[in-house]
Amino acid sequence: MANGIVTGNREAFFSTIRQNIKTPPGGKAPRVENPMDGLFTQRETTVEDRRELRERFIQEWTTLGGKAFNIKDRVELAQAIKQIIQERQLQKAMCWDHPELEKLKLEEIFSDTQASLSRWPLEKNYSDWIGKAASMEAGIVWSDIAMAETGTLVLPSSSPGQPTTVCVLPITLIAIFTTAQLVDGFTGVVKLFKERYGTNLPTTTTFISGPSRTTDIEMVLTIGVHGSRYVYALILDEA
Amino acid sequence: MHIEPSFHKRYHKALRDTAMLKAVKNGTGRLRGQRATAIEGVGADRWMEFRNRAEAIRLHVIQHLDQYLEQLVDNVIKNGGHVCLAKTGEEAVQYIAELAKKKNAKTILKSKSMVSEEIHLNPALEQQGCNVIESDLGEWIIQLAGETPSHIIAPAMHKNRFQVADLFNAVSEEKVSTEIADLCGFARKYLREKFLGIDIGITGCNFALADSGAITLCTNEGNARIISTLAPTLVTIMGMERILPGLEELTVMLSLLARSATGQKLTVYNTLSTGVRNPEELDGPQEFHLVIVDNGRSKQLGTKYEKILNCIRCGSCLNACPVYRNIGGHAYGWVYPGPIGAVLSPLYQGMDKYGELAYATTLCGACTFACPVKIPLHDMLYALRNDKVELEKTGGLVEDMTYKGWSAAFASMSRYRFSIGMARRFQFPLVKAEKIAYGPPPISDWLKHRDMPALPKKFFHEIWREMKNDGKE
Fold this sequence. Notes:
The complex is a heterodimer.
Chain A: E1 6-7, H1 10-20, H2 47-64, E2 67-71, H3 74-88, E3 92-95, H4 99-103, H5 106-111, E4 116-119, H6 126-134, E5 138-142, E6 145-147, E7 152-157, H7 165-168, E8 172-178, E9 182-183, H8 186-197, E10 204-208, E11 213-214, E12 222-223, E13 230-236
Parallel strand pairs in A: 2-13, 3-4, 3-5, 5-8, 6-9, 8-13
Antiparallel strand pairs in A: 6-7, 7-10, 11-12
Chain B: H1 7-16, H2 18-42, H3 44-63, H4 65-78, E1 82-86, H5 89-102, E2 107-110, H6 114-118, H7 121-127, E3 131-134, H8 137-145, H9 161-169, H10 180-196, E4 200-203, E5 207-209, E6 215-219, H11 223-230, E7 233-239, E8 243-244, H12 247-261, E9 269-273, E10 287-293, H13 316-320, H14 322-327, H15 338-349, H16 351-354, H17 366-370, H18 377-392, H19 396-411, H20 413-426, E11 431-432, E12 435-436, H21 443-447, E13 452-453, H22 460-472
Parallel strand pairs in B: 1-10, 2-3, 2-4, 4-7, 5-8, 7-10
Antiparallel strand pairs in B: 5-6, 6-9, 11-12, 12-13
Helix pairs in contact in B: 3-12, 9-10, 15-18, 19-20
């Protein structure tokens, strides 16, 4: 990718800052080493721990206004998806092109229902897909990491098959993941991000904690003003 | 919108607006309660540790601002984005206006950005024919009303549902009811159409990460991420202090920001974006411009007000402040209200225009106590008062003599006792029912609205001494 351009007098901009920064008598404040230490839960989890984390995630997620399903096998997955299609009266859904979702053969489950499922990319050109994506009633994503303590999905969109659009536009969001994706909180996320990406972060990473909300009118909590109004988490057992 | 230049007139106007005052009291009360519950969940000790860590992080960043900003600029351009370094608000506005012209932009959607309010971006873009639409529900409401935000995180806190319905009905073809769910539903439908026709998106910046060049946006509604996903050209405006070294520091700040602002554990949507999409990706901006704004910020570096640059704009000092809670945001006159505004406005916009705000405080320290990054706001307000007096030397000879006399009288115990004795003897013409309710200028002004208790026959320390003596005998 070509480098961008800097506009404005870089030298002058920075020389003002440098001139004004003063070193206080005790010296400048050092960088905080390991800033997260002691603030967040830090641990390696076992399969059993993660089953407990699943309960915590479900508790947080439902408090935020989401719905969660605890799924043992493919039969239960199909049941859950059909229940959502029924509840939301879905006609059109789109999903990420993700290897984990591919394994679940969602198209087969949908073929048995009133709703259609399109896999990204919907069209090859921007002008073509935008209208189509906007008409979709549900988006299905794979949550790469899920934070139990805050009920948060972590969605790095690092590949063209996993665009942000799928979780941005539709009024219903369905996130699927296994208990293996669960971490306590930020410590687990940062560890995985460092291992996977270093400082070369994906184009977009979204942290989603529940449905879109606002309290802008009279401080009354109202759900779904811009983002998803209905959010579902389908948590498969890793065993 | 015209803003009355006198603070005195602005707060008097606010005090007459009972509907607004009721809404602000209700809103700030709720936010305070939610924040308290969130802190309880974390535990008081751990919360203090969070604050200490956050303060240390911010302090380090501000004292090494040049290094982190250089690193950010290098990473943003490496990721394919463009950077504008704007020393003044005008430079930033000019850059964005020229970009809009070059792109022949008709529809510009914004997500909440205090800096864009600060530099008066919207009028400049509207002047050249762009349709600029605020997408945050609260911001859109006040845009329709032609007003400025009254609260940092709840900009339309002062409006009730009936006022909102009137504003929506002015742009709606069908009648919108006064039910809050219907009002939100209308906003979703109306703004969604605009999102799909977006030419340029403009966002603010909660935190920029120096080591990766990523921009973090936090919204509960999800409007910022619709913009950053759909806008072919994305502009992000950041105050130059809104920067962190990397991801680890960000997690501390996001945890503090949400809890301090609304009492949530995390904001619903936190998005980290490195800007331009990869060639094979279909969504995300094709062009990304980061506008880094100084506009008075670098002047605070190395001064006693440096820590004001630690601010993460959570708004909790507003909710804590007894003055803000009783006059609302508009009385402060500029973009930033409450204690943070009372410090920022005179520092960024000049003491002559906003110096009076240093008196919009009881100096109770509730703001400092509420601040998640431990900015000593009430100390700064006190320092600003000193600066104002030094700068203006308004006191004149009489005031000067009075304070010198007062200082001399109170500096020694015997002179203090003597002056109290004299005052006690000569106060009688002013005393009525043990109170002083009127007096000569300049104290007559003060006494207009309150009574002063008359000096008692005996002070506590005198009674105490007598009692001790009695005991001895």
